[in-house]
Specification:
Layout lengths: L1 H22 L6 H19 L15 H25 L1 H10 L2 H10 L7 H18 L9 H28 L7 H29 L6 H24 L5 H22 L7 H19 L1
Helix pairs in contact: 1-9, 1-10, 2-8, 2-9, 3-4, 3-7, 3-8, 4-6, 4-7, 5-7, 5-10, 6-10, 6-11, 8-9, 10-11
């Protein structure tokens, strides 16, 4: 069952990257689509929720405060991602965000007694980091100024904190594989709602100030993104219950990077150098190493 959730979460997250890639073709406003996305995800999660706890009782749940913090972090991460992409470029930003896998893995080894860092896991982590670097490495090098270092560093930290906090909530408040699905969906309802409110404050105020109009394509794009976002987050959250941090995060992140790179080549005709292809090969080897452990 864990493998099914892991594969589903990976494919759904890759689909989200494809959706973002298609936004340019339909002239979709990214910030507006993100707001619509979280609104749709929160409404959809509430619709499919079949439990007995009412919306008014959500603040009384033990996981509510962590969900508020995580929801806000999600939106700030999107904001940082935008700035980092503009200042440092997509390649450096993507590499920094995926290298953040080391944070939840090492924190997991420290916090949870049943998790340990064996030689195999350490080798797997080092290979994962190497594959991330090679997949996004460009042939030409360029000087990196302070801004180009600052934003990717923040991306690295925020992405790692997001994954670590989500795993912590999984362990502390949803520590059973057989946990009621409705409880997890209710948690997602809270998480998406907080992210929507945070996005409305951050991006909504900007749109109002600039008098940006929202078009039908943006609404449709945000709606589709919201549905995929809901299922990707839920399957990822479920998959976490079956794996240790040192196994789950490297396999999950490396799989996303490798599959996304392959789709970029086949579907969008993106060009990759020999060293990028070597990175994909190492990523796949890392997946097999950690999966067979």
């Amino acid at each position: 069952m864990g493998v099914i959730f892991l594969i589903s979460a990976t494919l759904l997250f890759v689909s989200i990257f494809v959706i973002f890639r298609l936004f340019d073709n339909y002239k979709i406003n990214n910030s507006q689509a993100i707001i619509v996305n979280y609104l749709v995800a929160s409404i959809f999660s509430f619709i499919v929720y079949q439990g007995d706890i009412s919306i008014m009782e959500i603040p009384q749940q033990s996981w509510f405060i962590p969900s508020v913090f995580l929801g806000v972090l999600f939106m700030f991460s999107f904001l940082l991602f935008a700035y980092s992409t503009q200042k440092a470029g997509v390649a450096i930003t993507a590499t920094a965000s995926k290298m953040s896998v080391v944070i939840p893995v090492f924190v997991g080894a420290y916090l949870y007694e049943y998790e340990n860092l064996s030689t195999t896991k350490v080798v797997g982590l080092l290979l994962a980091i190497a594959s991330f670097y090679l997949i996004f490495k460009k042939d030409k090098t360029e000087d990196i100024d302070f801004k180009k270092i600052l934003f990717p560093t923040l991306i690295f930290a925020f992405s790692g904190i997001n994954d670590t906090l989500l795993k912590y909530i999984r362990e502390i408040h949803f520590n059973s594989i057989e946990m009621d699905l409705n409880s997890e969906i209710l948690f997602m309802t809270s998480l998406f709602s907080i992210a929507f409110i945070a996005g409305l404050v951050v991006f909504g105020s900007k749109s109002v100030y600039k008098k940006e109009k929202i078009n039908l394509h943006t609404i449709i794009g945000g709606f589709v993104l919201g549905i995929f976002n809901f299922f990707s987050a839920l399957t990822m959250f479920k998959a976490m219950a079956f794996y240790e941090s040192a196994i789950f995060f490297p396999i999950f992140n490396v799989s996303i990077v490798a599959i996304s790179a392959i789709i970029g080549i086949l579907l969008f005709k993106e060009k990759m150098s020999l060293i990028n292809k070597v990175g994909i090969f190492i990523a796949l080897a890392t997946i097999l190493l950690l999966a067979m452990y």
